[in-house]
Amino acid sequence: MSASFSLALQAAQDAAGSQHYPQACLYVAATPIGNLADISLRTLHLLRLADAIACEDTRHTHTLLRAYGIDKGGAQLLAVHQHNEAEAAQQVIARLQQGQRVAYVSDAGTPGVSDPGARLCAAVRAAGLRISPLPGASSVTALLSCAGAVAPGDDSGFSFIGFLPTKARERQQAVEAIGRDARCQVLLEAPHRIAALAQALAALGERLVTLGRELTKQFEELATCPAQELAAWLAADGNRAKGEFAVLVHPQPKAASAGLDLRVLQLLLPELPLKTAVRLAAEITGQSRNELYDAALELKRE
Asked: Fewer CB within 10 Å, N side or C side of the chain?
């Protein structure tokens, strides 16, 4: 443990030690996706306090705990991963029923998003036991936060896809589905498949893609380009295909507001409240709800 994390442990005790941490509770804790300093003070405190830590890989978690100066015996680390999650959940439930505090961590990031954890939480909840989240790092939200793809007030939101299928035909079908969805979409990919993903995404043409490589790590890299140029960007530098990847497909650009068809809106406005008329007009025409709302206000003024 470095001196900096010694200070962090003390800060965690000072900041979070006086807070309430109920017994018989599963604490779902986010851990760093690369930079060890991204752990929260509350998670540091809870990892010291926990009677047991359920984890995706006990060796990986043991190394992580040692980096922070947290000492847990082997009996306190429980392996809960995608291959044994249903069965191992019963071990966690048994400990919770004994009144223990149990933390669950994946190898990196927020459990239950792309990593294991969902089945564990479902089993614990079905047993009538308490669950509490300790939020923190996630490659999904990290990339969304800096890609500039989803603006405030944008009613399209985003969709999290995760890893695409490995078989070529299934992957092609998945990309075709992405192309039909106008929303922002977030994917994850491993280094040995990133080139194949880039080639598949080329079918999206001019639609923008933001790639986040090695997020929060020393060689972090962010790049935005049309989907059809992503494969060439990767091939231009051999280092660009190394590391872990989060990939964001930007929303499909909307048609210019000058072409807004107001006929449906004009029929609905005299009969319905403004917001209801706008919502129905957007559903019927597929046009932007925000633009229809602005147009409705103008029509009302006229």
From this structure: C
Q: Tokens 């930007």 appear where?
A: 250
Tokens of 299: 């029509």
Residue-wise pLDDT tens digits, 27-41: 999 999 999 999 999
Question: 276-302: string of b/e by CB count within 10 Å (b at 16+)?
Answer: ebbbbbbeeeebbbbbbbebbeeeeee
- Per the CB < 8 A criterion, the answer to whether 54 and 103 are in contact is yes
C-beta separation of 231 from 199 below 8 A: yes
Q: What CA–CA distance (Å, rounded) separates 186 from 106?
A: 20
- Per residue in 240-257, pLDDT tens? 999 999 999 999 876 544
Q: How far apart are CA 237 and CA 235, in angstroms?
A: 5
Predicted model pTM: 0.81
Give the Cβ contact number of residue 92 at 10 Å. Answer: 23
List the strands of the sheet with 25-29, edge to edge: 77-79, 52-55, 101-105, 25-29, 130-134
